[in-house]
Amino acid sequence: MAAITMDRLTKVYPGGVRALDEIDLTVEDGEFFALLGPSGCGKTTLLRTIAGLEESSGGSLRIGDVDVTRTPPGSRDVAMVFQDYALFPHMTVAENVAYPLRIKKVARGKRTEKAAATAGELGLADYLERRPGQLSGGQQQRVALARAMACHPRVFLFDEPLSNLDARMRLEARTFLKRLQRELGVTTVFVTHDQAEALALADRIAVMESGRIRQLGTPSEVFRRPANTFVASFIGSTPMNLLDGVVRSRGIEVGGELLPTPPEPAGRLVDGEKVVYGIRPEYLVHSPTAVPGSLTGEVRVVENLGHAQLVTLEGPAGFVQLVVDEDTPVALGDRGFAVPRQDRALVYRDGELVTAGADPTGLTAGARATGAT
Amino acid sequence: MTPPPDHAAVPSASDAAPVAVATAPAGPPPSDTEHRRREAQRAAGREGARRTVAQIGFYTFVSLVLAFFSLPLLWLAVAPFDANPGLSASLPEFTLQNFQVLWDNPYAMRSLGNSVILAGGTGLLVVTFAALAAYALSRVRLPGRDMLLYVLLLLSSIVTGTAAMVPLFNLATELRLIDSQLGVILVLSGGLLPSAIFILKDFMDGTPRSYEESARVFGASPFQIMRDIVVPVVRPGLATIGVWSVAQVWGNFLIPFLLLRSPDQYPAAVVMYTFYTEGGQANLALISTFSLLYSVPVILMFLFVSSRYGFRFHGGIKR
């Protein structure tokens, strides 16, 4: 078990694409860490660089106390589970799980025993003699996990671990993965483009965009206080409403309505300044009648979320989405009012969060120390 | 006999049925619908007859084509056991004498052994080098890689072709490879390799890189990756190439005829050319018997390979 320390880690592909731009990041020992971002943001490159499948063009990488920047992948003591699982199709489950041990020259009898035991822990005891092609997606994934576990690495790397499972299996596998990681206590880094997956699984998340980390923090920090509008629009199963506004002496004017200034940025704003007012659909309260300090509009779309409804209002502020209780009747064409929860509203200036505390991105040393605990 | 049941009339119903369906809701007179129904039945009967005629025609045609191709095979099966075989397939005057004569011929049986050496040697060489080259070409980015492959493919048809006969002979003379089986194996391998690389590269391209990367992270060396992962995964491709090159060499007449001098080195394809009677006529008895023996190993090889290796692929990648 070991921490992973990246210091100004850079990867430039031939042709000049900067996939990683001076990444400074420490993944603590035993942490379950998510690299989250849209496709092409460099998250997979970062994972592959940690694995050693890509060679970094600059900076250094340490696993535990060892500098592994130039170490070949096989000597880094990491195990990787690929998005497609990469199970060897010509080997049985037992042979697949035993393969890393075979490379490490463990005697046949011992490695068979070890593979059977590891596979048994993951509920694969009945499938040892099957080939990967004869297994379901969920079973294949567990074989890939067993293969990674068999050699007791110091670090697990998962590339999009859940993306190849159907929706129902995904939930099961998510819970399973989280429990497994807790039990093993092995430092784990995983890559995902699915914010819900990152929020549910990770102890800490790094949100990436074009080779840089835009925010680093626990799931609740990243969800509640996105450090910039990029993270704000990326995190959350229903994206945050980001509305253009102007600062006035008694509040923030959004679409002609004066909304009270949230407590945190109050006093840090200048009259007449252009800002972005951010509020999640979950933190808007619906009202059928006019309320002062609310956003208004005509109901354009109603989407059923099962336990609630996602309502889209079109008004002077543009489109505003809010989550409404399943029992509240909302009809298309109705006039609706949305009252923001003051303690959850955020204000962005030039795309960055206006805040009272330390650097909200969690990237400076002080913020990292608080974020890690 | 009842008229064709309804389900038999389905194909013809395409012209009759839509009309009936379209008029039914409007409540047409009963006599009209009755009339239409009879009409539809008659149409179905005509259709059935036409179909029978078409089927008879089809099977006659297929039988003719089949006969055209099976008569030579029939001759091959019958003539070796005939005391006086002609050019037509006929009921044989049964004898095993032909096999006895062939067995006593100093070159016949040995030539089959020579063929095995040439085909086996070439097959081994082609599979080994094509696998290595195809793997490298599939995994390493080379500028102009595809161009290189196409040029090689183009040239290969010249290397073993008639056009290069003289330079090949000269080259072999200079290298002292005349009258040596090694020379034949090398020339044939050179001719087959480009196509083999071309075909195998496709198999290699179809093998996900994540297999190899996964093995690399576990610490496997390039040789271990090749032996444990790549070769087993592309095995159907290797088997295909092996069978194909053996069959190519087995049937090749020109190159061994050109490069070999002594009759005890000749492979079967060349020896067959020497079976004449004293009168200078083709010795049909020997040729047919030898042809039968000559084709057996290739058939056995196909059967063996398809049962042993089977052209199948177990998926380990979730798509």
TrEMBL record, chain A:
SUPFAM superfamilies: MOP-like, P-loop containing nucleoside triphosphate hydrolases
PROSITE patterns on file: ABC_TRANSPORTER_1, ABC_TRANSPORTER_2
Domain ABC transporter: 4-235
Entry superkingdom: Bacteria
Entry keyword annotation includes Nucleotide-binding: yes
Keywords noted in UniProt: ATP-binding, Cell membrane, Membrane, Nucleotide-binding, Translocase, Transport
UniProt-recorded Gene Ontology molecular function terms: ATP binding
InterPro entries linked: AAA+_ATPase (IPR003593), ABC_transporter-like_ATP-bd (IPR003439), ABC_transporter-like_CS (IPR017871), ABC_transpr_MalK/UgpC-like (IPR047641), Mo/tungstate-bd_C_term_dom (IPR008995), NA-bd_OB-fold (IPR012340), OB_MalK-like (IPR040582), P-loop_NTPase (IPR027417)
Protein's name according to its UniProt entry: ABC transporter ATP-binding protein
Species: Streptomyces spiramenti
Organism phylogeny: Bacteria, Bacillati, Actinomycetota, Actinomycetes, Kitasatosporales
UniProtKB/TrEMBL annotation, chain B:
Residue ranges with Basic and acidic residues bias: 32-46
Family according to the record: Belongs to the binding-protein-dependent transport system permease family.
Organism annotation: Streptomyces spiramenti
Pfam short name (any one): BPD_transp_1
Positions of region (Disordered): 1-46
Residues annotated as transmembrane: 56-78, 116-137, 149-169, 181-200, 237-260, 280-305
Protein's name in the database: Carbohydrate ABC transporter permease
Keyword Transmembrane attributed: yes
ABC transmembrane type-1 domain mapped to chain residues: 112-305
Keyword Membrane: yes
Localization: Cell membrane
SUPFAM superfamilies according to UniProt: MetI-like
Membrane topology annotation: Multi-pass membrane protein
Biased composition (Low complexity): 7-25
Keywords: Cell membrane, Membrane, Transmembrane, Transmembrane helix, Transport
